[in-house]
UniProtKB/TrEMBL annotation:
<keyword id="KW-0808">Transferase</keyword>
<dbReference type="InterPro" id="IPR042081">
    <property type="entry name" value="RNA_2'-PTrans_C"/>
</dbReference>
<dbReference type="InterPro" id="IPR002745">
    <property type="entry name" value="Ptrans_KptA/Tpt1"/>
</dbReference>
<protein>
    <recommendedName>
        <fullName>Probable RNA 2'-phosphotransferase</fullName>
        <ecNumber>2.7.1.-</ecNumber>
    </recommendedName>
</protein>
<comment type="similarity">
    <text>Belongs to the KptA/TPT1 family.</text>
</comment>
<comment type="function">
    <text>Removes the 2'-phosphate from RNA via an intermediate in which the phosphate is ADP-ribosylated by NAD followed by a presumed transesterification to release the RNA and generate ADP-ribose 1''-2''-cyclic phosphate (APPR&gt;P). May function as an ADP-ribosylase.</text>
</comment>
<dbReference type="GO" id="GO:0006388">
    <property type="term" value="P:tRNA splicing, via endonucleolytic cleavage and ligation"/>
</dbReference>
<dbReference type="GO" id="GO:0003950">
    <property type="term" value="F:NAD+ poly-ADP-ribosyltransferase activity"/>
</dbReference>
<dbReference type="InterPro" id="IPR022928">
    <property type="entry name" value="RNA_2'-PTrans_KptA"/>
</dbReference>
<dbReference type="InterPro" id="IPR042080">
    <property type="entry name" value="RNA_2'-PTrans_N"/>
</dbReference>
<keyword id="KW-0520">NAD</keyword>
<dbReference type="GO" id="GO:0000215">
    <property type="term" value="F:tRNA 2'-phosphotransferase activity"/>
</dbReference>
<dbReference type="Pfam" id="PF01885">
    <property type="entry name" value="PTS_2-RNA"/>
</dbReference>
C-alpha cells in the first residue's frame, strides 16, 4: 500500500470511526469498538475496499496512532464527536502538557480557556513537537503550555488515550501559558 492510499484510508477511517459511523452503516458499541469484519464490509460497500492486512498496515503506520486494534475489533483512540465512553481511567498528568493551535484562536482561548468544541475532551500533547504538528494542520502553529499539575491539584480529571494523547474536559485560562 503506497503512502498516499494509506493517508487517504486513515482519514476515511477517522471520519467514520470518530464522527459518522452511520454514514457507512456502522454501529459502534458503547466504547467505540466495531468488528473488523463489519468495518471491512462497510468500506467495500462504499468504494474503499481494504484487506485485513492493509487495515493493519494503516493502524500500525499512522503517525498519531489514531486507532486501536484489539483482536477482531477496532476503534478510534480518541477525538469522537459521537457518544462513546472509551473507558479510560483517570490518570495523573505530567506537570506540563501542551496544546497546538493557531493565532486566530488565541483571543477566545484567553477569554474561555480550551474547550472541547465538538469533541468530548480537550486534547493535550505530552511534548512541544507533537503540539507543533497538531497546530500546523490549520496554519502557523502556536503552542500553549498547560499547567496540568496545578489543574490536577485543583481537581480537574485527566485521562490518557492509548496513543498518548491527554484528555480533559476544559482548561481554564489561568492554567495556560501563552507565548510572548
Amino acid at each position: 500500500m503506497d503512502d498516499r492510499r494509506t493517508v487517504k484510508v486513515s482519514k476515511y477511517l477517522s471520519r467514520h470511526l470518530r464522527h459518522q459511523p452511520e454514514r457507512i452503516g456502522l454501529v459502534l458499541d458503547e466504547q467505540g469498538w466495531v468488528a473488523v469484519d463489519d468495518l471491512l464490509r462497510a468500506l467495500a460497500r462504499h468504494g474503499v475496499p481494504l484487506t485485513r492486512t492493509e487495515l493493519e498496515h494503516v493502524v500500525a503506520t499512522n503517525d498519531k496512532r489514531r486507532f486501536a486494534l484489539d483482536g477482531d475489533r477496532i476503534r478510534a483512540s480518541q477525538g469522537h464527536t459521537v457518544a462513546v465512553d472509551l473507558g479510560l481511567p483517570p490518570a495523573v498528568p505530567p506537570s506540563l502538557l501542551h496544546h497546538g493551535t493557531v493565532a486566530a484562536a488565541l483571543e477566545a482561548i484567553r477569554a474561555e480557556g480550551l474547550r472541547p468544541m465538538n469533541r468530548h475532551h480537550v486534547h493535550l500533547s505530552p511534548d512541544r513537537e507533537t503540539a507543533v504538528r497538531v497546530g500546523s494542520r490549520r496554519g502557523r502553529p502556536v503552542v500553549l503550555t498547560v499547567d496540568a499539575g496545578a489543574m490536577h491539584r485543583d481537581g480537574h480529571v485527566f485521562h490518557v488515550s492509548a496513543n498518548g494523547v491527554w484528555l480533559t474536559a476544559h482548561v481554564p485560562p489561568r492554567h495556560l501559558g501563552f507565548p510572548a
